[in-house]
Every structure is written in structure tokens, then in C-alpha cells.
Amino acid sequence: MKKKRFGQISMEYILIFSMILMIFIPTLYLFRTYAVESNEKIIQQRISQLAKEIIDTGRELYYFGPPSKSVIQLEMPPQILSMGIISLDTSEGKREHIIVFNIEVLGGNSTLFFNSDYPIAALDEKYNTIKQGNECGESLNVKECKEILLNPICQCYSSSDFNKGIKNFKLKAIKGSKCHSFDNTCMIIDEVSDELT
Prior knowledge:
Helix content: 25-40%
Shape: elongated
Strand order of the largest sheet: 4-3-2-7-6
Order of helices and strands: HEEEEEEHEHEEH
Number of helices: 4
Largest sheet: 5 strands, antiparallel
Structural class: alpha+beta
Number of domains: 1
């Protein structure tokens, strides 16, 4: 009789343990999924704030005109895979200027676009490491860089310009051939952290 009793108790323990697992495992999965999605939203929000600060500061300097310039300090998150600037023709005959970030997310890569309402261009005055054309389009994972009808100008920053940490970006209003605008005036965005140290 006692052996049957122990068998019944161990069977009850197994049932209780399996019920706990049936509740715990889905709860753990839901919590993990929520945490990952929240983290991705936080990263996208941080990058959105970076782009907004670059665009807002640049707008102010652009309207002051050349030779206005400023250096802003930005903290770059580690999830940025590539960063660049694209200029393309629109169907209205105007030129569109976009800051692009390609970031790493759980499901792969995601590309974030931030439109500028004034002409912008990438420049590395010290090392001239800005990549252009198809090489840049593949790095940014942007199909518009390959669309010949859009007359794209794609410029990418080197990885040292956007890797994790605090970076200093110089924004400078210039007039000249480096600008892709109707009046040859634009904002040049250059990462200058190593020049300031």
C-alpha cells in the first residue's frame, strides 16, 4: 500500500511541476518578446533624435548662410550599421535630401530615412573617406542609389564616423560644386571627433 501512495505523490508533483512550466514558459516568452520590441523602439527613437538634432542645427546654419558653422556632439548607439546622405530628383522636379541610417534589429536590418528641407551633403575634409555611388547604396541597403532615373547622389560615412560612442559632427554652410542644389548652397556634415582631440 505504501508504494502506491508514493507513486501517487510523485505523480502529483509531476502534474504540479508541468502546470507551472505551462504557465511560466509562455509568460517568459511574452516578456522576452516585449523587452526586445521595446529595445528596438528605444534605439529607433535615439536615432530619430540624432537625425533631428543634425537637421535642426543645419537648418538654422543654412539660413544664416556661408560661412556659418557649428559642431554638435552626438552619442551614437552601437546598432548603427551604416550612415549616409542621399540626394535624388523627385517627380516635381525638385531635389530631395535624406539622412539614412541602416540599423541592426532582431529580425535583421532596418533602414531609417530622415528628410531634410534644405540641401545637405557628406564630407570628410581631413581624410576624404566618404564613399559614393553603388558601393554606398549597398552599404546603406537603399535601392534608390541604383535608380538612374532619380539621378541619385549617395554618400556614406566610414564606420569610424558612426560607431558606438560620442561623436562630434561639424555642420558648415558652403557655396560651391560640392552642393547639389539649384543655387550651389548647402550644408556639409562632417564627423570631426579625431580633429578635436
